[in-house]
Amino acid sequence: MAEQPTTTQPTAKYRADYLSPDYTITDISLEFDLHDTETKVVAVNKVQRLSTEGAPLVLDGDSLKLVRVEVDGQSWTDFSEGESSLTINNLPEQCELLIETEINPEANTLLEGLYKSGGAYCTQCEAEGFRRITFYLDRPDVLARFTTKVIADKTQYPFLLSNGNRVDAGELENGRHWVQWQDPFPKPSYLFALVAGDFDVLRDKYTTVSGREVELEIFVDKGNLDRADYAMTSLINSMKWDEERFGLEYDLDIYMIVAVDFFNMGAMENKGLNVFNSKFVLANPSTATDTDYQGIEAVIGHEYFHNWTGNRVTCRDWFQLSLKEGLTVFRDQEFSSDLGSRPVNRINNVRIMRGPQFAEDRGPMSHPIRPEKVIEMNNFYTLTVYEKGSEVIRMMHTLLGEENFQSGMKLYFERHDGTAATCDDFVQAMEDASGISLERFRRWYSQSGTPVVKVDTEYLPEQKRYRVTIKQHTPETAGQKEKLPLHIPFDIELYNKQGEVISLQCNGKPVHHVLDITEAEQVFEFENVVEQPIISMLREFSAPVILEYDYSDEELVFLMVNARNEFARWDAGQILLAKYIKLNVSRLQQGEGFELPSSVVDAFRGVLLDENLDPAFIAEMLTLPSENEIAGWYKTVDVDAIHTVVGELESVFANEMADEFSAIYHTLTQDSYTIEHAAMAKRSLRNTCLAYLANTEQGNELASKQYTDSDNMTDTMAAMAAANSAELSCRENQMSDFSEKWTHDGLVMDKWFMLQGKNPADNALENVRATMSHAAFDIKNPNRTRSLVASFCANNPVHFHAKDGSGYAFLTEILTVLNSSNPQVASRLIEPFLKYRQYDEQRQSLMRAELEKLAALDNLAKDLFEKIQKALEL
Ligand code: B3K
Ligand code: ZN
């Protein structure tokens, strides 16, 4: 039976209300006696009072059965149990507090706290899951040394794991055994982990730069050992990279990663014992695509980098989440960029910003990277905290430069290692180490929304001056009306007609290409500009803002060819595409036909044929913005028009460049599959060509042949995706062949579920419903649900937004189930409803009605409560 979430009206917590704790716990010794429905947990805490005498000790607890309390070895009765707390009175200043609780891992469908994933026990404690294991000061500013003894049946659970070093082990009667772990580093409870199960283990070793020998172990389900190599390679690469680029070394003798199938998000950085969604560990060429491999590298890196940015220095309170997440995303992005293609990584990160992050910042859940008010903390593991948070770190990096930034990191660790810090502490360290003022810059932490930067330029030939007027303005966002000017690093470059860079000069002095925009309006007059220049702006996406500038087609085509950096070339292409997508959406709305000048096609043809460019970059240049990103350009979204225009643009490109696509497609064949970047780049371009060619006469033959010939999942999936989106006749055979081959493997089937979700056919919803009874589908598994349901609701806009409301009713059905079984997953799936105000009246009222239905659920979880309440606010 699923647990029922609390029914009382949830209350919000405010950042401004932070109080340091009355007590701390310096040491905790845990003993788990693992049983499926009745696990006994004994916690012995060394408690130390920090405040005045008389303050009660209020511990957090959730869904726990309290068995006994002892203080200094004596039974203690002076306590009271609240709905989510245990208040213990009249404690001495220091004591040893024993608490025994009983929990039910098997009934834990929330996948928070201790639960069962397949046959294994595992934990997820961030943000507030530890309180589902024992009563505790479950807040990140209480740092304790953990000792953990795990007892379980030896045959079923030969591996018993926890944080730190394995210090002891033994056998018991009745087939049980135990292992004891000790973590020497004090840590908050959210970093605690326990795993018990039977696994295959991939082992390796790493010697750190100062000579520490570290055992590396990756635990996977039995039979999956041939899918763990890339995770191991990525781990070793991460350890090396962090030493080289950040001077940071690993600090324990063992680093373990466990892959589990039931997991609410990507992975978790528990000290010395990462728990991973198997999606980010398991890969071999026949089961995983190149994108999967890149995801594994990034997530393995991300969790490893948390060992310093998150674990050694943690967060004072959850409002500071971006302190560890924004910084660690920045670090993982740099890792992927240093090892792979920097421009391609940047492009993909910017796509996430301009698409879903900007959308979040426009919607009812808009919040600054350091939120002010939270009802359910799990709702704030957002694109804003993570991705925009990383952009904020990146801006500091741009303003300070690598050397100053690294001095800032060093100072940050000198000051805060072993403690719980704040975002302000980080900025202060950067400021103190560099001597560069970040006073106005700090506003990025408190102001939500996406700034709009409007630029006007004027060339003054007589004076040989080029005047650039830059205005910034941040539109009002949910819950925050007043906006102030921000410190925006604005990277520009000027070119002459020959494509040469014009050096920037103001008042007779050279000027850096990153302009400091700090006011609502600023004017720059560049001198010695002898001809009308062409300006490239917001290079590298130097700030998370929307740029408004009236570029001509000629200027954009010029930048696509001549801009010195690849990101700027891609961006010019995107602006050009955006112009014609917008034009054609309004033409369609007025009953006019599709129109695209041949000069635009020629510009993209030029890129396609440029042999000096990295094929992976060419593929990005030719990838159209998603329908969701396009939706974000409008106050009222016309899903059908957007879909039609994107389809027409794709087919015009396909037909106009069919010969070139076809020639490149046939040239880029590879003899054998490798996961080197050069090989991935070729596959990426070849499969982009296939996606276009799918819209031409040759489409069915090519997709069908590629599916049959393919010896790797990248090419297989590309063939299927092309057949799916172009509705080719080979689709059906491919889909049934694939399902037959992979039914036993949920992780691989996720790719198939995703295609069912994105199916453009008219009966898409009917198919999705039918797919829910597929043998490999399980609504309790977050990966399955996301692959099918989220891909339909979030990435199949035409069908999800069907005018009859059928897509909306479907989402409500799913949310109603997940509200009880796994509200964290429900809360991610509800996102498309939150944007209801951006649609026409009919759709708005249909979606609103669904939100109201959900709001009326009598067991509404606070995860959904918080989002629905904000969405329905007038
Ligand atoms: N810190 C975890 C995320 C925890 C999410 C809790 N709902 C993974 C990460 O960001 O590395
Ligand atoms: Zn993280």
List keywords for this structure.
single chain; 874 residues; alpha+beta; Immunoglobulin-like; eight-stranded mixed β-sheet; 27 helices; 21% strand; binds (3S)-3,7-diaminoheptanoic acid; binds zinc ion; alanyl aminopeptidase activity
Task: Explain the overall architecture.
There is one protein chain. With 874 residues, the chain is α+β, with helices and mostly antiparallel strands. It has a domain at 19-198: Immunoglobulin-like (Sandwich). It is built from 27 helices and 34 strands. An 8-stranded mixed β-sheet has the order 6-5-9-3-2-12-15-14, with no helix packed on it. It has a 5-stranded mixed β-sheet with strand order 17-18-19-21-20, with helices on one face. α3 packs across α5, α14 (658-667) packs antiparallel against α15 and α16 packs antiparallel against α17. It is globular, with a radius of gyration of 28 Å. 49% of the residues are buried. Bound molecules: (3S)-3,7-diaminoheptanoic acid and zinc ion (ZN).
